[in-house]
Write a structure and sequence with these properties.
Keywords (chain B): Membrane, Transmembrane, Transmembrane helix
Distance between the termini of chain B: 26 Å
Largest sheet of chain B: none
Shape of chain A: elongated
Distance between the termini of chain A: 33 Å
Number of strands of chain B: 0
Strand content of chain B: under 5%
Largest interface: A-C, 26 and 31 residues
Order of helices and strands of chain A: HHHHHHHHHHHHHHHHHH
Keywords (chain C): ATP-binding, Nucleotide-binding, Transport
Helix content of chain B: over 70%
Number of domains of chain A: 1
Low-confidence stretches of chain A: none
Protein name (chain B): ABC-2 family transporter protein
Strand content of chain A: under 5%
Number of helices of chain A: 18
Number of domains of chain B: 3
Chains: A mainly alpha (about 425), B mainly alpha (about 375), C alpha/beta (about 290)
Low-confidence stretches of chain B: none
Shape of chain B: elongated
Family (chain C): Belongs to the ABC transporter superfamily.
Mean pLDDT of chain A: 90
Number of strands of chain A: 0
Number of helices of chain B: 17
Structural class of chain B: mainly alpha
GO molecular function (chain C): ATP binding; ATP hydrolysis activity
Radius of gyration of chain B: 27 Å
Oligomer: heterotrimer
Structural class of chain A: mainly alpha
């Protein structure tokens, strides 16, 4: 605690500023709004939890048969004439539907949702058989016009991914229940929308906090007093710790509050252990083919970890730049633009396959695509160690930058 | 005057100019390039655009029954061309398709037909078939021009006023004859430009007062001969800078917009090229001018609020944070309502004018408040 | 003992200090020099804020830049422009600086109160500094320099903004502290140090001019300072030949005080004061600021 004293005091200087608190509140308000604007489907989603409770988290031919039988029973209890479920739903016009009693309508809603899951689940085997991972890989190479070393790297990746895909099929990993990717797209909603919003909000705050902690003495013209104390210029190091700590606090707040709202709105209770690679979670053109058999809760944890680590890294990068520039305003604007540049510039590398591929390994793209973490079918960003490589490389870059700029600061004449 | 120039120079420092240039380059690639390079975006949009340009030359804004018959005549001729093409095309023969009618109705499951279809449409890039698609969409729109508006009255209108407006349009035969791709492109383009302008203003003007506060030279200035006049001088320099930034951006991005070659549409009414009904019978050219006026107003409102904020707060941290929140408010509310859909009947007719009037009032009040506060403030 | 050995400082082509040598023992030293003479450069070097281009500074035989925090641990420093956090109270600010100075939390609180008492700020110790006058801020600055009971106390223009009463009090504080530490006061106001400094250091044109006690410095002009009364119209003529230290108008006559290398029976020789030496030696330099 004694060692933390100065670090905490440094952090306090920034966090006692009411605008930081105001921004946090506005951001959480925005997140709440985002979540609630999708909340209309939360009741429909609950059906899946019932299914999981009744038939278990993973499904097979046996349990699907049972599910089908139950739906049939339900259908015939409502309409004695209907021979098959299909017949029943085919003849169910809007007018027919409104003629039923309210209770019956509820049952019909329930049955039709169950039927949706049944249909999707029973079609999976065939849909997965039709997927040829290596052909998809060729498609990526063709689409981005990749050649040379980059092509070899990608082909190699897809070869490995094909093995992993076979494993998913063999181990029946894809046969676990999850919210139907089509139409609900809950994976995208949580990871693509909400998590990347949190990440952007985090970036806005983290850059501000880090730049202003780094330039605080300069801004207040207190450098001469503070850097001539016993702590001296090592204070800058403590300030770095303070901005890391500030990053964690901001991240923690945004994640905890937002996710608490999210998970109280949407009931995931039966699905924590479901696989992200579940075929039911098939949203767009391809299913999620994750490199590792992450359950939903593991994946969520990894996403939080990756975003937090990236923000720590961005904090370090900003801190390094700010120590160098020693002008909080310029440093902040510069760092924001730098992060935007990381988003824009890789798309300009169409002239070189290798650069195009390497350009994918950058922190901005990483935090903006949490729904694609560990997904082999993530276009150019699908290699097995994409996340870990990006983080490691940028950790090295930002630490290198920080070391240089701290070293320079330690020797610099303060005038 | 000399002091005024000095204040202007202090606003446009080299590092600030550099940051604004970088911002513009990045956001050009991110937001603008697409609207310029991919206009009209894809097919048959490209072909619709071509056909429409021809139509405007031949028929003008309003297409009467005779002109429509002429258009159908052209279409039939093109269909004949298509038939001829199909009768000589190898793949078409193989698939047993020898007329455009059959070509349109090919079954997706028929492998040979599918191969022929994608070969002609995508590999040959034969314009004829795309053009036919484009003409069909125009014919369809023409034929449903009355029922379309009737449908809007019945199912889509939100307010009494909107219903009335659409009825009036029906009565006076203010129909949509052309697709809205030019209009939508312009609306998207102009709102992206606003984003860039607002961010540039924020970067340039945020430091205007804080710069001196941080260096603590304010007491020095206030006791000098010019006294607190410096505050007003800066204020005027700030207003001038907003003007400069607006002028430069509007010139550059306005000039770039002209490369989209939409001049044909300038003298047509907006309602004749918009899926969504609009309140006023203005031409597309007038709409462009209105948008420019709106951008200038928004620029000034945002800019003055930026300057006022800079005068009120004591440090950059507060300034940047407020700027971010202010920008978000503009990006999520003001740009969609006040620029993109400025004349659409989606909002009641008084909504947009009220927003602008209250913004201007608010800015005037802010101006008064800040200047008054500055006069009595202890240094 | 603080020894300055052959110190030079250059910024590119600009030379701020050249070959300064001196040693300082316990006691009060007044650095007298007009602005721009290099005294702030020297002081910032002693505060380890800037590095010498040549030479070294040692404390008890060890280079202060190598001693690093051990050196700064015994250093108290008030910079010329004392910055503070506007929204902090003196107490919060000093508690913060106490942490930076490595003073343990327990001691810090008592010590903060003690130094605030010394500079007579106890009553406002919980008020935000935003509203403080220049003199009050300066006293906070003096208080923070004393926080760690420094063995070396360096004060750059400490009396700026202080009223005469506060100045007197300040001199009193310094005298009481001077017994077992090195106190270095930079100023261009002679009266600040004249009575309390054991030795005066004068820097001119980047070089060390004097480092002597007040008496010996004054002796350098012994017998050369005179006083006389002349007609106002003769003043111009007179000032061409002699260096005027001061003048006073009185009933159409002008009483002047000046330096001369000759003697005249009309002139009354007087004992040179430190102020006289200061004016005489820096005759060609601006003393403003």
């Amino acid at each position: 605690m004694k060692r933390m004293r100065i670090t905490l005091l440094e952090l306090q200087k920034i966090l006692r500023s009411p605008v930081i608190v105001l921004m946090l509140l506005v951001f959480v308000g925005f997140n709440l709004f985002t979540i609630l604007s999708n909340a209309y489907m939360k009741d429909e989603l609950k059906i899946l939890n019932q299914i999981v409770q009744e038939y278990g988290l993973s499904f097979n031919d046996e349990s699907l048969k049972e599910l089908k039988r139950a739906i049939e029973q339900g259908v015939s209890s409502i309409d004695h004439q209907a021979e098959t479920i299909n017949d029943f739903f085919n003849q169910l016009t809007f007018e027919n539907y409104t003629n039923y009693s309210l209770d019956d309508q509820k049952t019909i809603d329930n049955l039709s949702l169950r039927y949706l899951y049944y249909n999707q689940a029973s079609a999976l085997e065939e849909r997965y058989e039709e997927l040829d991972i290596e052909v998809i890989g060729d498609g990526v190479i063709e689409k981005f016009n990749i050649s040379g070393i980059a092509e070899e790297l990608i082909l190699n990746d897809y070869e490995k991914l094909a093995m992993r895909f076979d494993e998913i099929v063999e181990e029946q990993e894809y046969k676990t229940w999850f919210f139907a990717g089509n139409p609900y797209r809950m994976h995208s909603q949580l990871f693509r929308e909400l998590m990347s919003i949190i990440a952007i909000e985090g970036v806005i705050l983290v850059v501000l906090i880090s730049a202003f902690i780094a330039c605080y003495e300069r801004d207040n013209r207190t450098s001469f007093v503070t850097y001539s104390t016993k702590t001296g210029r090592r204070l800058m190091l403590k300030k770095w710790y303070a901005s890391l700590l500030g990053t964690l606090i901001v991240c923690g707040f945004l994640f905890i509050v937002t996710l608490a709202i999210y998970f109280t709105t949407f009931d995931y209770s039966g699905l924590w252990e479901s696989f992200v690679s579940s075929g039911i979670n098939w949203e767009y053109k391809f299913p999620y083919v994750t490199w590792y058999d992450f359950t939903f809760i593991e994946y969520l944890g990894m996403a939080i970890l990756i975003i937090t680590t990236t923000l720590l890294l961005i904090s370090t990068l900003t801190f390094g730049v700010s120590v160098f520039i020693q002008n909080s305003y310029m440093a902040t604007v510069f760092c924001y633009l730098l992060l935007v540049a990381m988003f824009v510039i890789p798309s300009l590398f169409t002239f070189s396959s290798l650069l195009l591929l390497l350009g994918q390994f950058n922190p901005t793209l990483l935090i903006l695509n949490p729904h694609m973490y560990f997904n082999g079918l993530a276009g150019l960003a699908g290699s097995q160690y994409h996340e870990i490589i990006t983080l490691t490389v940028w950790m090295v870059i930002s630490m290198f930058l920080l070391t240089i700029s701290l070293k320079r600061f330690m020797r610099k004449d303060l005038v | 005057m000399k002091l005024f120039w000095m204040e202007l120079k202090k606003i446009f420092t080299w590092p600030v100019i550099l940051l604004v240039v970088i911002l513009n380059l990045l956001l050009y690639i991110l937001l603008i390039e697409f609207e310029l390079e991919y206009f009209p975006n894809g097919r048959p949009a490209k072909d619709v655009f071509q056909v429409e340009m021809e139509m405007i030359d031949r028929y003008g804004e309003v297409i009467d029954e005779d002109e429509f018959a002429d258009f159908i005549g052209t279409y039939d001729e093109r269909v004949k061309d298509a038939n001829e093409f199909l009768q000589t095309d190898e793949l078409a023969i193989k698939a047993g398709v020898d007329s455009y009618e059959e070509f349109r109705n090919t079954d997706i499951d028929d492998m040979a037909a599918e191969e022929m279809h994608s070969h002609i449409m995508f590999e040959l890039e034969e314009d004829l078939f795309w053009e036919l698609q484009a003409r069909e969409s125009i014919i369809e729109r023409y034929e449903s021009r009355v029922t379309g508006l009737e449908f809007l009255i019945r199912y889509q209108s939100n307010s009494k006023q909107e219903k009335e407006r659409i009825r009036e349009m029906l009565q006076n035969r203010k129909f949509q004859y052309y697709s809205e791709l030019v209009l939508r492109n312009f609306e998207n383009y102009s709102s992206q430009v606003v984003v860039i302008i607002l961010l540039s203003i924020a970067i340039v003007l945020s430091p205007i007062y804080i710069r001196d506060k941080v260096r603590d030279i304010v007491p020095l200035q206030y006791t000098s001969k010019k006294g607190r006049g410096i505050f007003h001088l800066k204020w005027r320099a700030g207003l001038t800078s907003i003007g400069i930034l607006l002028a430069i951006h509007l010139l550059i991005y306005g000039g770039l917009y002209l490369t989209n070659d939409t001049a044909h549409y300038f003298f047509m009414h907006v309602y004749s090229m918009s899926n969504n009904p609009v309140w006023y019978d203005i031409t597309f050219g007038e709409f462009i001018l209105l948008t420019i006026v709106a951008i200038i107003m928004l620029g000034y409102v945002f800019g003055i609020l930026t300057i006022a904020c800079s005068a009120l707060v004591g440090n950059y941290l507060t300034q940047i944070s407020t700027q971010i929140l202010l920008f978000c408010a503009f990006a999520f509310v003001m740009i969609p309502v006040g620029v993109q859909r400025i004349i659409e009947t989606m909002y009641l007719p008084w909504v947009v004018p009220t927003i602008y009037i209250s913004l201007i009032l608010f800015v005037c009040l802010t101006d008064r408040f800040v200047k008054k506060r500055e006069l009595v403030k202890d240094i | 003992m603080l020894i300055i050995k052959n110190i030079s400082k250059r910024y590119g082509d600009f030379e701020a200090l050249k070959e300064i040598n001196m040693s300082l023992e316990n006691g009060i030293y007044g650095i007298l020099a007009p602005n721009g003479a290099g005294k702030t450069t020297l002081i910032k070097m002693l505060a380890t804020l800037i590095n010498p281009t040549e030479g070294e500074i040692t404390y008890n035989g060890k280079n202060i830049f190598q001693l690093d925090d051990d050196y700064r641990d015994i250093l108290g420093y008030l910079p010329q422009q004392f910055g503070y956090y506007k929204h902090y109270t003196p107490r919060q600010y000093l508690t913060y600086l106490a942490a930076l100075k490595g003073i343990s939390k327990k001691i810090a609180e008592a010590r903060t109160d003690e130094v605030l008492e010394m500079v007579a700020l106890s009553e406002v110790k919980n008020k935000k500094m935003r509203k403080f006058s220049g003199g009050m801020i300066q006293r906070v600055g003096i208080a923070q320099a004393l926080l760690n009971d420094p063995k070396i106390l360096i004060l750059d223009e400490p009396t700026a903004g202080l009223d005469p009463k506060e100045r007197a009090r300040f001199r009193q504080i310094l005298s009481s502290l001077s017994r077992n530490r090195i106190i270095l006061i930079s100023t261009h106001i002679v009266s600040d140090v004249e009575t309390i400094a054991n030795e005066i250091i004068m820097i001119k044109n980047k070089h060390l001019l004097y480092k002597q006690d007040v008496l010996s410095i004054c002796q350098t002009l012994e017998g050369k300072v005179f006083e006389t009364v002349i007609d106002f119209k003769d003043l111009a003529n007179f000032s061409e030949r002699y260096f005027i230290l001061g003048e006073r108008q009185d009933k159409g006559k002008t009483m002047i005080r000046f330096v001369a290398n000759e003697e005249n029976s009309d002139w009354k020789p007087i004992t040179p004061q430190l102020e006289d030496i200061f004016l005489y030696k820096y005759a060609n330099e601006s003393t403003s600021g």
